[in-house]
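Q: I have four molecules that I believe assemble together. Could you output structure tokens for the complex as a whole instead of separate predictions?
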Amino acid sequence: MCRWLAYSGSPLSIEALLYRPEHSLIDQSLHSQLGAETTNGDGFGVGWYGSGETPGVFRSVEPAWNDRNLRELAEHVESPIVFAHIRASSGTAIQQTNCHPFRHGRWLWMHNGLIGDFQEVKRDLALAVDPSLYPAIEGSTDSEVFFHLALTFGLEDDPPAAVASAVGLIEAVGRDHGVEHPIQMTVATSDGRRVWAFRYSSEGRSRSLFYSTDVPTLRELHPEVEVLAEVSDESRLVVSEPLRDLPGAWNEVPESSYGVIQEGQDELLPFKPTHA
Amino acid sequence: MCRWLAYSGSPLSIEALLYRPEHSLIDQSLHSQLGAETTNGDGFGVGWYGSGETPGVFRSVEPAWNDRNLRELAEHVESPIVFAHIRASSGTAIQQTNCHPFRHGRWLWMHNGLIGDFQEVKRDLALAVDPSLYPAIEGSTDSEVFFHLALTFGLEDDPPAAVASAVGLIEAVGRDHGVEHPIQMTVATSDGRRVWAFRYSSEGRSRSLFYSTDVPTLRELHPEVEVLAEVSDESRLVVSEPLRDLPGAWNEVPESSYGVIQEGQDELLPFKPTHA
Amino acid sequence: MCRWLAYSGSPLSIEALLYRPEHSLIDQSLHSQLGAETTNGDGFGVGWYGSGETPGVFRSVEPAWNDRNLRELAEHVESPIVFAHIRASSGTAIQQTNCHPFRHGRWLWMHNGLIGDFQEVKRDLALAVDPSLYPAIEGSTDSEVFFHLALTFGLEDDPPAAVASAVGLIEAVGRDHGVEHPIQMTVATSDGRRVWAFRYSSEGRSRSLFYSTDVPTLRELHPEVEVLAEVSDESRLVVSEPLRDLPGAWNEVPESSYGVIQEGQDELLPFKPTHA
Amino acid sequence: MCRWLAYSGSPLSIEALLYRPEHSLIDQSLHSQLGAETTNGDGFGVGWYGSGETPGVFRSVEPAWNDRNLRELAEHVESPIVFAHIRASSGTAIQQTNCHPFRHGRWLWMHNGLIGDFQEVKRDLALAVDPSLYPAIEGSTDSEVFFHLALTFGLEDDPPAAVASAVGLIEAVGRDHGVEHPIQMTVATSDGRRVWAFRYSSEGRSRSLFYSTDVPTLRELHPEVEVLAEVSDESRLVVSEPLRDLPGAWNEVPESSYGVIQEGQDELLPFKPTHA
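A: Yes, here they are, computed for all four components at once.
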């Protein structure tokens, strides 16, 4: 399993997001409380939207807690949208190309969870990836194949529909192979303007996922938290597990639902796989 | 491009093979003379047959010339069959799972050269891999797909026939995609008893490959070379480029041919792809 | 803090020592129970005595639990004396030269614990290292300076006396700098024939250390443990924390004492720093 | 030996500096033409001045030519002062703490060359480092000790005088130890406002060093070079070897001299070690 964080809001340094909170993602890399594993030391990755055409991605096979380059980067990069992910491998190789977030053009993708019995279903799923996208799969994870399935089903046009189709296919292929619980997932994806976050599992007992309370309310509840003065009213975090022990700050994303973080009103909607 | 070495003979330390010769493979990692690239610094690997059921494989993404663990291992491991490979990536990621030699059960495989326009033909070739073998592909190189094709076509039963079929398929798929020169290769493979070495390319201008003159003749020619006193009469090296500047020591493997190093008489035979 | 294991006995594969026990050192790298830190993921090292003049040392900055090369090495190397160490950095850089065991000629050294306020006392301690040894210090840890102090005081001639002198100096220098608890240590060292293991701390509350019950007794107590049938009567393990939950198998090394594992009767003696 | 580049001028992306020129530093990491070694693959580093109090530093032990994170960083970081260095180890360990540039507060430092017989003189030089700075030495290179000597002699107040004193000491200590040529150096250092570049060697045959012709002249000579339109008139590069084959673009820094790149007129002055 893994832990992740997605931020959208006023430009913030990665350092403020990754290192400053008490129970930060860096701390979770050593002592996760809600994860399936307490240690998430099998590599990490950070993605952000900066001046370039495509988002920046920094991925490493070292544990996040001891990576000096991550710390340097975190202090020097600010961005309105930041993805960060720490990995606990479920068996696949520890290599950069297996670290999240994955990138395709302007899109980032990260995943916590797994495709059940992936070795059994991997070939069928890879064959369902659009032939033009197939050679872009560089690593050996279920998460990267999942991303390329979502791209195949139109992620760039309609993310919720594309993810629903990809999950529907994964469930169908899994069931054909006798897999009891074909998918377990929390997923975040972004095009640099909006962020979508999904929580779902075939068994209906999904990995934890939380979103932060709106900033104006948080400021009233916790005037002492300095970062709240720095960020805009619309800033929002979505996290695998709470970063601070702040009463009223974290709200569970309900089972089988997804949220959209965007300019104006954010949304929280039900998620249902599409079976062809 | 890459450089490689295959040894079969009396148990010898990896250090004697990799470090002691003047123009050793380690030296070639910095200054190859015959390779397509002078620097082969994108990772390396060593495979050997020891006490275990399967051969040992040590692979790293660091340049071979500065890897201390390789040096330690080399000094402490002796084996009757040793494969060593230094990599110059033609673009695919620098990661352990892209380093040679690859292993399947008792089999080792390493390759110098390339599958032409691999991104174009990758999916078709991967689909031709036996479904039970497909999930075992961990990296993103042409060489690993080529190995799994050879396994699919019966490498474990009849290596020359299996390689001929795999190459035939690669050429057919390449030509379907309009690739002028579908394959360029020198390949070594072993089951721990025999070693097969192939030299072939679609264009008929293959990467260099040499085998060493038989040991009794070499001892007469060069009584001053100490290692020749240590090794058995049947010991043999196959290399991408000569390790020492010893007159009479190195013989070019002819175009479109393969050799078998085995107990008793070694063999040198013509190689021709099998087109289905 | 760190965790370590020292084995002396019949030649055994590193794999049998590192991977097979239930609560193996590999498992402890993720979930230590008695360590100051639960995760020991800041690099590791293995040392063993083989055919060469000097022991082999394999060290890496990756976490031990996910290092494939360690697994390969472990399956292919057997040795009558094996040192293994997993590191949890107390702040110094994650680099091979900071990983244990350290080596000097035929000697290996590994340490769990710390020199108090090391940044304060580092220069004075480094100046006390023999000038001929000073340039051999490659990393930045307290443990490596400690090793070179022990060498300076005659480790190669009389290990207990040399360690007592080194600890005496560390305590004297520490107290000069107002350090309350100048040293905390469990240390193992070997010349390839004997193994010495020390447990001591200035505050009298030392890190845990255990030695295994003699093999004949263990075989009677636990006839079901297969590895006991393979190893000689004189085989012995010294460990930071027990590898298996075997009643009667583990004995605490008393505070301020050291043991010698050797041919014939092993010894357990009091340890007292020598103050000049 | 190594290769390096120092840029001062209008904020420019690291990518424009490192990757775009024909004979870029990345290209030099594989095929240096003027260096003592053709391959500089033993790690690299980049330093830049951004929003933080201290400059950012990104250092890695991988070869620069295949490091994906360097490429990502290079595309997303712009800075008015950039240092970049590629390393060819003369024997010391390949580790991040041995990669340049080194940092102390707001200061960066990088070096090409060597301290002669460093293992002989290392202890005496380290003892001359200010005791408060001594513990900050993390690696094992001559270059880092040299930097700490310059800091000891007042680098932060008067860089040319401090470097002259440090070199004077290195020459004196070297000669005491019978070293024929105690130092060989090109050095760049900066406080984020000015850049100083030194060229000197005890033997009077120093490593190559070049500075770029002023931008207005270059624009006239080479109107086709696009980057010249982007940068300010005062922009300047100092490099170990020319990045492009542009007639009139590169000027050799004379033997035993140093330059200062600053607002207003840059300076080029003689350099002479100060012997105490």
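A: One point stands out. The helical segments of chain B are 14-18, 25-31, 68-76, 118-128, 142-152, 159-176, 215-221, 227-230.
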